[in-house]
Amino acid sequence: MLNYQTFTLDNGLEVIVHEDPSSKIAVVNLLYKVGSRMEEEGKTGLAHFFEHLMFGSSAHVPVFDRELERVGGSCNAFTSPDITNYYMTLPSSNLETAFWLESDRMGFPSLTEKTIETQRKVVIEEYKQRYLNQPYGDVWHHLRGLSYEKHPYRWPTIGEKIADIEGYTAELVWGFYERHYHPGNAILVVAGNVTKDQVARLANKWFGPLPSKTSAKPSLAMEPVQTTKREKEVYAQVPTDALYKAYKMPGKGAPGYVEADVMTDLLGSGKSSPLEQRLVKQGNLFASIGAYITGSVDPGLLIFSGKMEQGIGAREAEEALQEVIVDYFSQKIAEESLQKITNQGEAMKAYESIHVLTRAMNLAYFAHLGNPDLYWKEFEEKSFCSPEQISFWARQLLSEEKASVLYYQTSKT
Fold this sequence. Notes:
- By secondary structure, the chain is α+β, with helices and mostly antiparallel strands.
- It is globular, with a radius of gyration of 23 Å.
- Strands 1-2-6-3-5-4 form a six-stranded mixed sheet, sandwiched between helices. Strands 7-11-8-10-9 form a five-stranded mixed sheet, sandwiched between helices.
- It has helices at residues 46-53, 64-69, 95-107, 113-132, 139-147, 162-166, 170-180, 196-206, 257-268, 274-281, 314-329, 335-354, 356-369, 374-383, 387-397; strands spanning 5-8, 14-19, 25-32, 74-79, 84-91, 186-192, 230-236, 242-249, 286-293, 300-308, 403-410.
């Protein structure tokens, strides 16, 4: 268990302090409870776009990165379907600089027309380079759109299409800021060589004056239960065919979530996994194969994905994959296999605990889910999954009528 202390400012900002006197640095992690799931169709990609805007200037900070680099710090951020997360590391002696910078861009961003247009060009170029001009780059556009009919998870974080990004107006951008970028919609974690008293003083000084805002959260469309298998064929100039098979799974914290996570570990974790051994080492269809989950707050996806050997079709490969899945879960799961997954989890948890930044991120994310202690609860639940639990949820989730399959194939031309 990590030691941490919490308090909440009058304006609603939740603050978590993780003291680690052995560290020479301080980490400031600011999580906003907004991701692409909070967007509307036709206006997608705004959460990611706003992440870019936040690295420009603010009322009292002409160049964000320059001010942080002057005190020996570094920063970055990421946007997911569920959250936007900003983080920086710097010498603990310069901690106040981080508070100044983060509070200024929360309260006084410079969302000028020039800034919006500059970042629009940057994001559109990113869209083209990463999603249109890379082999298999648009997989998530196709797979999400196939797997979801109603829920906002049906588009990727960068946006559903370039036209959405081209259509952002200053009014739309400011409206997004007003709804989501305020103390009551954020969680601040400060970790490392810091003290609670120090953090409390700085939080009140820099974030305390920012006004509290209340805004109604959008009512997210509930995804209807899938009752028939969905398929989509895509042809592109790619080296080999690829297969992406997705199943709906429970959201984080819901019954069945950790069991789905364990399923993918059992089938696809490491060189000795059944998928690797039967489909890659001993087979002649797959060049590579893996299994993973999206880890979403709302019901997400359990995914099997692989690249085929030259000349092998994705549909042929799917038959071999399905045979492995059915064979594995039709038998009793060995306790030794579960113990191996538990050991791997403990090793990963130990590795994560070494890094102050990772600890800060975990505290922020699970606080967003309701309580920082959920991190350890999830780990414990995963460690104590029984073979019977895994088999039960495999029968519930891995049925063909609930599958969405993307056959990404080499172009016929």
